């Protein structure tokens, strides 16, 4: 089992979609929200994903294809 | 001896023992190391610092590791140069350059990695790792070599050969990852989760980032135990920006400088990677992640972990944030080299470009005491300035020399 701490950033057109619920339904991933914010022009959610690494990888690819920006809680790991 | 106490979450305030960790278990906010300043005050003085080594380790009581046996490749205590010729060009009488391009691996990253590597070794890790496009790779590989630790450096597969050589010479396991920037980020996050390594900017990040405070201490000491009116700082994640300010304030808190710092903190980013500047311009604190596209690759962080905290400091200090385009970066590298004899990498070009903008808009006045941070060496990003090369080729005879150079006796 793996767990990943990620930040999902949603543009306004996606805010009303139950994307995190769908992520848990479509893939064998347990989602655990820790912090979130919804503003006028965007929303973000910081959450933990638990599951097999391959399932998490598939889930992240899927959610990126939905138009969600996915970042790691740590910020960018690749540094100059 | 170390005067550290605990980790504290910057968001919810929860406290944790000082173990390798980077985010709060509860809210996933970043944790920051806390110190017992009353004890530090008892143990440091201007004299004790001045009699310390000519490296960043003269400030060991302010760092989160035992400074008696650090992983030390002699990072820090770099020159603070009075920049008379550049100052004259810009109309500034009190301009200084903090030349951190002369660190052992030629960038300020030696400071942060020195602390991270010492902490990693002291925690008992045998392997240290990072993901980098240049400066960090060299610093991590060099410190791992000095510490006798195993080292893994992850780089994008299309990284320029010069940068690969600059790190691989120290003997790390260099891993070139096929894929884009996001792919490398994701892979490294997964590896960090699955392997018990010290990743300098993941589980070692609270220790690592504290190393940047020494850039504040040194400037304050080198200016004669005072802080400047303005600093101009190149920024990627925003971490160094926040730590320079923290360094100034810690020196005041323990009585090493008399006046409370009133320095105006100015942030410099390249237009192609300026998410913090964008938030500043829009008057918001939420930093929207972007996809970087700039020649200043050492500043190419699209999702800056400390953007929010840097914006708070800009607000608190009446500072500013500016971005300059690639052509200004190149021009500014040349300006710095041709006036002060300092060849900086692209991040330094960003700093000088923003410094110029701050003078032109009247934010920095001619007699203001100003420090611009030059954080990396130009030999690392030679490709950025190739277009400036202007060699005259002549035949090996005197007539050709005079003809081609228009010489007249």
Mind explaining what this structure looks like?
- The complex is a heterodimer of chains A (80) and B (409).
- By secondary structure, chain A is of the alpha+beta class.
- Chain A has helices spanning 19-26, 53-65; strands at 2-10, 30-38, 43-51, 69-72, 78-79.
- In chain A, strands 2-3-1-4 form a four-stranded antiparallel β-sheet, covered by helices on one side.
- Chain A is globular and about 35 Å long.
- The termini of chain A are far apart.
- With 409 residues, chain B is α/β, with parallel strands linked by helices.
- Chain B has a domain at 80-106 and 209-388: Rossmann fold, CATH 3.40.50.1100.
- Chain B is built from 15 helices and 13 strands.
- Chain B has helices at residues 37-43, 46-50, 84-90, 109-123, 135-147, 161-168, 181-194, 205-210, 213-222, 239-253, 275-282, 307-316, 326-340, 346-360, 398-405; strands at 4-9, 15-16, 31-35, 80-82, 95-99, 127-132, 150-156, 173-177, 198-199, 230-234, 264-270, 320-324, 370-374.
- In chain B, the strands form three sheets. A six-stranded mixed β-sheet of chain B has the order 4-5-13-10-11-12, sandwiched between helices.
- In chain B, α5 (135-147) runs parallel beside α6 (161-168) and α9 crosses α10.
- In chain B, 55% of the residues are buried.
- The model of chain B has no long low-confidence stretch (mean pLDDT 95).
- The A-B interface holds A 2-5, 7, 9, 34-35, 37, 39, 42, 44, 46, 48, 53, 57, 60, 69, 71-80 and B 11, 22-23, 26-29, 109, 130-136, 154, 156, 181, 184-186, 188-190, 192-194, 199, 201-202, 205, 236-237, 286, 288-289, 297-306, 347.
């Amino acid at each position: 089992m793996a767990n990943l701490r990620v930040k999902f950033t949603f543009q306004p057109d996606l805010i009303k979609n139950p994307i995190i619920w769908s992520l848990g339904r479509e893939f064998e991933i347990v989602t655990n929200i820790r912090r979130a914010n919804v503003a006028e022009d965007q929303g973000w959610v910081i959450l933990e994903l638990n599951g097999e690494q391959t399932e998490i990888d598939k889930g992240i690819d899927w959610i990126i294809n939905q138009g969600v920006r996915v970042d790691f809680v740590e910020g960018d790991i690749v540094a100059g | 001896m170390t005067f550290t106490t605990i980790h504290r979450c910057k968001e919810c305030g929860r406290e944790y023992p000082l173990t390798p960790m980077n985010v709060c278990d509860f809210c996933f906010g970043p944790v920051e190391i806390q110190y017992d300043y009353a004890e530090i005050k008892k143990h440091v003085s201007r004299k004790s610092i001045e009699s310390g080594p000519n490296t960043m380790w003269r400030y060991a009581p302010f760092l989160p590791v035992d400074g008696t046996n650090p992983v030390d490749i002699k990072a820090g205590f770099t020159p603070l140069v009075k920049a008379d010729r550049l100052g004259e060009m810009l109309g500034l009488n009190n301009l200084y350059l903090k030349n951190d391009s002369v660190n052992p691996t030629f960038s300020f990253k030696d400071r942060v990695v020195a602390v991270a590597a010492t902490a990693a070794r002291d925690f008992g890790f045998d392997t240290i790792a990072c993901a980098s496009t240049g400066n960090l790779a060299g610093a991590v590989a060099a410190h791992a070599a000095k510490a006798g630790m195993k080292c893994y450096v992850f780089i994008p597969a299309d990284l320029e050969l010069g940068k690969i050589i600059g790190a691989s010479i120290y003997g790390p396991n260099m891993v070139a990852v096929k894929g884009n920037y996001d792919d490398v980020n994701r892979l490294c996050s997964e590896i960090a989760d699955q392997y018990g390594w010290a990743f300098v900017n993941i589980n070692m990040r609270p220790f690592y980032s504290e190393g940047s405070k020494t850039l504040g201490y040194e400037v304050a000491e080198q200016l004669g135990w005072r802080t400047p009116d303005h600093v101009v700082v190149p920024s990627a994640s925003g971490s160094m920006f926040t730590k320079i300010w923290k360094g100034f304030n810690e020196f005041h808190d323990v009585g090493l400088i008399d006046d409370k710092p009133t320095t105006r903190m100015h942030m410099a980013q390249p237009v192609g990677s300026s998410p913090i500047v964008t938030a500043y311009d829009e008057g918001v604190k939420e930093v929207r992640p972007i996809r970087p596209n700039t020649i200043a690759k050492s500043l190419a962080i699209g999702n800056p972990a400390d953007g929010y905290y840097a914006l708070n400091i800009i607000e608190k200090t009446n500072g500013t944030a500016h971005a300059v385009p690639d052509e200004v970066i190149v021009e500014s590298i040349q300006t710095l080299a041709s006036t002060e004899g300092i060849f900086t990498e692209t991040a330094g070009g960003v700093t000088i470009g923003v410094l110029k903008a701050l003078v032109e808009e009247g934010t920095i006045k001619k007699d203001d005491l100003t420090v611009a941070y030059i954080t990396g060496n130009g030999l690392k990003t030679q490709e950025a300035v190739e277009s400036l090369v202007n060699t005259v080729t002549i035949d090996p005879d005197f007539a050709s020399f005079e003809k081609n150079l228009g010489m007249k006796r």
